[in-house]
Amino acid sequence: MTDPQNWHAPTGDANDRPRYGEYAPPPASGAPQAWGPPPAWTPPPRPGLLPLRPLGFGSLLWAPFQVLRRNPKATFGSALLVQGAILLVTLLIVGPVTLLALGRVDSAPLADRDAVEAGANLTIVLSAIVPILLSVIASALLQGIIVVEVSRAMLGQKLRLGQLWRVAGRRLWPLALWAAILSGALIAGLAIVAGVVVVCVLLGGAGVVFGIIFGILGGLGILALSAWLTTKTSLVPSLIVLERLGIWASIARSWSLTRGYFWRTLGVQFLVALIVNIVSQIVSTPLSLLGGVAISLINPTGAIDSWIPVIVIYVLTIIVSLVLGAVAAVVQSGTTALIYIDLRMRKEGLDLDLQRFVESAPGSATDDPYLIPAGRMPAAPQS
């Protein structure tokens, strides 16, 4: 047994001995082998929004709200500008046209009123085309802005509003075309179902029953088909912006990335949309219900012109709707961008590319970790 009084500290420089969490150097030839402690676990780096590792289900649910809080001026500000511009154009175009059309109907002779009313309705519908087109373009731009913000936030970068708009604006037209394709497909499906129902009802008799049944089943079918196609192609905007692919290449790649993760992708998007909708209803429903009560309290005797309280309540409702719509747009667009990054981490090791980018010196050859070199581009999905 070793005498404690004769014990001496081991010789040699302390820097030569392994630190905790490191393997000891190999022993010299003939020397007894010494085993050190195992390497210490190192958590994945977190330079920005989330740790650079595949994301859990819970992270995908709360992280979109972090996107809104992390850079509110650029994200919420962009969404508010887009929503406000759409509303303003709608009021400036559809509002005056509607007033003129209804005025013509009121002043038309009784014999011509039906024809004038039909023409007025057609004019109002045509005037809404411009705001609808603007809405498609603006919504596509906003989606691209949020995709850029999420991708930079993962790297710890914080772009200003103007920078986000410039980067997303370079891919505006492919984004807008994709949004138009989605909207057109949905409208075409609904038009087909509605047309069949109208024809069956006009035939009368058993056609009415068939039309009702077809309308119910057709509506449910369109709902299921829309959920499936929307989920499978939900990554297209992220691919258009971050990988700079065309529309059809983005569709094929989104189809491939979501393979094996369909229900997870659908579940995250559905739950986030449900949370946003519940919060919106909690805020907007009391305002709508209390509108009439507020008018009675403000003007109990009718001394004030009746239209003044109505306008006040209507303006407040519009403001609340704009705010809620801006929040919903940021959160839902952020959700799809985070799902895209998570799937690439799981399937292609994007987390390692992001870590290398963060650790590399500025100005190095690693310009954009989200771009895939030509030699590493995955093969097209097999049918």
UniProtKB/TrEMBL annotation:
- DUF7847 domain ranges (all copies): 76-331
Domain of life, per lineage: Bacteria
InterPro entries per the UniProt record, alphabetical: DUF7847
Q: Which residues cross the membrane?
A: 80-102, 122-151, 172-199, 205-228, 235-255, 310-341
Q: Where is this region: Disordered?
A: 1-43
Keyword entries, A-Z: Membrane, Transmembrane, Transmembrane helix
Pfam families reported for this sequence: DUF7847
Q: Can you tell me which residues the record assigns to a coiled coil?
A: none
Biased composition (Pro residues) is annotated at: 24-43
Protein known as? DUF7847 domain-containing protein
Q: Which organism is it from?
A: Cryobacterium zhongshanensis
